[in-house]
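Morning run. Coffee first, then this:
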Amino acid sequence: MRAEDLVHFCPPGRLIIGCGARAQLPALLARLGHRAGVIVTDRFFVEQTPWVREYLQAAEALGIATQVYAGGLPDPTTTLCDEATAQLRAQLGGVEPDHLIALGGGSNIDLAKALSLTLREGRPIRDFTGDIGGCRPIPLIALPTTSGTGSEATPGAILLDPQNATKIAVMDNALRPQIALIDPEFTYTCPPRVTADAGIDAFTHAIESFLTLDSEHFERGGNPDPGYSGRSALTMLFARESMRLCFAWMERAYTHGADSQARIGMAYASTYAALSYGSAGLNAGHGIAYAVAGQTHKSHGSTNAVMLPYVLDALVDSRRGELLEIAAMLGLSAENPAATARQVPLAVRGMIARLDIPTDLKAFGIAADGLEALIADGLAVTRLAKAFPVADVDAAYRRIVENAWSGTLSALS
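And here it is:
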């Protein structure tokens, strides 16, 4: 317990984790009184796995009618959402579904979150940018198929607006899934590259939320129901366990994808990380990574990874105690606390390298003349910049970006 904490914790309404847990879903939905649903997924899961077919058969036997939308794509756009809304409303013939099921990675879950608003309201998703204005979304059930994004426990949906090539956020605690069902078996066939990118995304969520701004200092803007509200002893419990599991299983899941124990470990790690950052929020790592993605169009996991060691290095003074906790998980010597804290970013960078992800911005394809734009664009994500627990955020962002380009860490100086 920390007496100074101001806890505002918003997990999914029901959290179910277990191998084969997907078989429970039809009976649970029937028990909750659901009778008409939509599955939001993509062609791969419909055509290459038995999961959709198995669900439809079991749901139909219990009197649950289900439409299938298989048009999900990576990085869903506002246009895709609006087109899917029109298509589904026509197919439903005026019948409003009483639940949506998202099957897939973060992209499919984000699309389903957006559709939970637009299917009911019949309006473009841009109308809901930022605050959803008191609208009540259709209840959502999330079935993640990767161990990384944590979208099954977060309050927002991110979509790309093709009109200006920027991402919009639709945010409200009402968008958190009412049921998050994590079946590790969904991840067993995940390819190595996706496994690594998703895994490091989960780890970044855990460590960033573990080190982020305290809840007592977090700016909530007078919102009585904030989506993010800073770290507390509760969020830090989940972050610790997620990091421990990542250190134990992430590299194993990447190099030995058939290891079911590693897959299960990372499914738990991803969920625990989501329970931490889904209320605590994130900061500079993600803020700058968004800018890196804008210049390189690399995956979200890898853009987080390339920035993470240098963000950690900027916190060796303000978060030394927490870094020493992480050092203990890594088995680092504690003889010299200051030196040990500086070893953590170096050890994390080594882990990222073993996942075959570039470990500096130069190797990542960023030119020297692009650094100023990275700094400016990172700082422009003010929600994340304000949550970075350092005295001078502007100077810290500059130092992080410059060090990430040159590969400079304090442990090596």
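DSSP finds 15 helices and nine strands in the chain. Good start to the day.
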